[in-house]
Structure formats: structure tokens, C-alpha cells
Amino acid sequence: MNLADILLLALAGLAAGAMNALAGGGTFFSFPALLASGLPPVTANATNAVALWPASIAGAWAARASLRPLGRYLLPLLLAGLAGGLGGGLLLLAGGDGVFRSLIPWLLLLATALFAASPWLSRALAARRRAAERPAHTPTSLVAHAGVSIYGGYFGAGMGILQLAAFSIEGHPLARANALKNLISAVIYSVASLTFILAGRVSWAELLVLLAGATLGGYAGGALGERLPPRLLRALVITVGGGMTLYYFWATQAR
Question: Residue 198: what pLDDT?
Fold first, then answer.
């Protein structure tokens, strides 16, 4: 890792941390930067997942008051997240760099589309949602949560939007749906990150630079959150995501 790579990762971490604090979508900055620094695709994705791990745990801890009354209701959701996160991480490792490289543009396209559609999706779900104290678990809902968890363990960008949609469709109020999203995300990132660490697919030097930048970016993003228009931030994330998607489609075809 040369000086140019260090600067690139530091700036990407700064942008990712700020965007996650302001509007989400930080992966669109951090993951391509890890690829550009020369990491193989699977190692880049594994390193990015570990970089997101501390923030996911912090989000779950912050939401603990909303989740504590649910008690045993959380157990099937936790098991679905655990199994899905492990399964997604193992699929990533088993498929290797070749398979993941071919999927990168499609995964970025899905994540960009989800991010772009999230305001409309939230309004549509709010219009049809019937809040319930503890919506009953069904085989269909648990399979859906496991599927989202597999996606999260495999790639992760846009996972939070999928989780919010699933919990809202079930009938959870938005505040509790967000708390559940934070908890299950922490489970998925924890099991996937441990899987990647044990498999030796995390590049620690790049990770440390990215985390340093993301920490500073998160602080700056929090300070700027009240001053910058959300539409501008969302437009920036969508533009970056769209640009990265087009680039990786072109790069895949050029090989």
C-alpha cells in the first residue's frame, strides 16, 4: 500500500463515514476505494464488512431500550440473522473472487436502486402498514429475513433498506422497525466479520486507514447534519452509486 492508496482510502473513509451519518450509502465510497487500492474483490468486501462492524454494534446498543420489551420474540429473528449472515459470508468465500467480481455491477445496481427508491418505499409502506404490538412470525416472514441476512453477509449495501421494508410489511411501527434493523444488522455483520477474519480475508492495513477516515467523517457528518439539505446528499449518493455501477459493468465487459 503506497501513499496514493493511503490517501484514497482515508478520503473514501471520510466520505463514507460522513454519508452514513447524514444519509446512508457510505459503502458506495469505501468498497470501490478498497478495490482501487488493489485488493481482490472478496478481500475488499470482507474488509469493508469489518469496517462497518463497530457502527452496527453501536446502532444496536443505542436501540436497546426499544428492543428490551420484545424479549423472546427476538429469538427467531436473531437465529435467522445468524444463519443468514453466516451463510452469506460462506457463500462469498466459496464463490471466490471470480464469481464475486462478475456480480459486483449487479449488486451495486440493486443497492443503488434500493437507495434511490427508499423514500417512495417508506411512504408506500407507511400508507398500508397496520402497526401491531408483536406481529406473529410466519415461515414466509422468517424465510424473507433469512434471505435478507444472506444478502447482508454476502455484500450488504442496501441491506438496511430491505430490512426496514420487511419489518414494516410485517406491521412494526417505523421506530421499532429501525431498532430491529439495527439489531439484526449487528448480528449479520458480527457473524460475517468473524467468518472473514477466521478465513484470513481481511486486509488489516487498509482497514485501519479506512476506519480512521470513517471515524473523522462520521464526526464531521454529524456536525453538518443540520446544515446540508437531505435531497442534495441523497442525490450525491445516487450519482456515485450509479457511476460506480456503470463503471463496473463496463469493466466486467472489458475483461
Answer: 95
